[in-house]
Amino acid sequence: MKNTNSIKRKFFIYQVFAISFFALGILGRIFQNSDYDILLFRKPIIYSLYMICFLLFYITEVLSIVFLFKKTRNKLVLLTYLILIPLLILHFFTWFISSSTTISTKLYKYPEIETAILIENGHDLLGNHSRVFETQNNFVIKKVALVTGVEPPLEDDSSFDVKIYKDKIIYTYDDGFDKQQLVLKYDNGHFKEELSE
User: Fold this and answer.
1) Contact assessment for residue 96 and residue 124, using Cβ atoms and an 8 Å cutoff
2) How far apart are CA 88 and CA 84, in angstroms?
3) Which pLDDT band holds residue 94 (cuts at 50, 70, 90)?
4) Number of neighbours of residue 42 by Cβ within 10 angstroms
5) pTM of the full structure
6) What per-residue confidence (pLDDT) applies to 73?
7) Residue 134 confidence class, pLDDT cut points 50, 70, 90
8) Could you give phi then psi for residue 97, rounded to 5 degrees?
9) Of the four, 44, 118, 136, 138, which is 20 to 30 A from 60 by CA?
10) In terms of pLDDT, which residue wins out, 62 or 144?
11) What are the sequence ranges of the domains in the chain?
12) Closest by CA position to 124, among listed 143, 149, 99, 104
C-alpha cells in the first residue's frame, strides 16, 4: 500500500511538472504566433535544447500514462488518459510540422539607429528561410520580415550582406538563382518592410 501511494505521489509531482512545461510551451507558441519571441531562445544551441526537452516530455508523458494504465483500475482515470494520449500525439505532430531548425543567428547594431536587427537563417519542411527581427532591449524580439527560398548561409556569411543607408537597412541575399534585396525602412523606432512597386 505504501509503495502504491509513493508511486501515485511521484506520478502526481511529475504530472504537475509536465503540465506546467506543456502550458509554457503553448504560451510560447502563442507568443511566437504574435510575431514576438525571446532573443535567447533564437540561438541555435538553446533552441535545440528546447526541442530536445519537448521531445523528452512527450516520450516520458506517454510512457507514464502506459505505466499508469497497468497500475490503476479506475475506469474514469483510464478514460481521461485515453482522451489525453490522442491530444498529445496531435499536438506533437502540429508542433513538429510548424517547427523550424535554426542554422545561424546574427545581431546587427548600428550607432545611427537605436533598434538592432537580428537575422535568423533556418529551414523547415517548406524549405530555407530568413527571418528578420528587431529588438530595442536585446531581450524581446519582434519579427518584421520573412524571406523564403534563401540559399543556406555560408560560414563566412558571404551568401548575404547587410548595409545601412540613412533610414534604411538593405538585406541582400541569394535565392539560388539571383541576388535579391529586402529593404527595411526605419520609422519612429521600428522597421517596416518597404515593398517594391
Assistant:
1) no
2) 6
3) low
4) 18
5) 0.70
6) 64
7) very high
8) -65, -40
9) 44
10) 144
11) 2-98, 102-191
12) 99
Q: How many CA atoms lie within 13 A of 35 on its CB side?
A: 10
CB 121, CB 150: distance < 8 Å: yes
Q: What is the mean pLDDT of residues 73-96?
A: 68
**R_g of the chain computed on alpha carbons:** 22
Residue at 12: amino acid letter: F
Residue 7 grid coordinates: 508511486
Percent helix, strand, coil in the chain, to 5, is: 45, 35, 20
Please state, as a whole number, how many other Cβ atoms lie within 10 Å of the Cβ of residue 105. Answer: 18
DSSP for 94-159 reads HHHHH--EEEEEEEEEETTEEEEEEEEEEEETTEEEEEEEEESSSSEEEEEEEEESPPPPPTTSTT
Burial 140-153 (b: 16+ CB within 10 A, else e): ebbbbbebeebeeb
pLDDT bin (cut points 50, 70, 90) of residue 98 is low
Displacement of CA 61 from its chain's centroid (Å): 21
The whole-angstrom separation of Cα 135 and Cα 151 is: 25
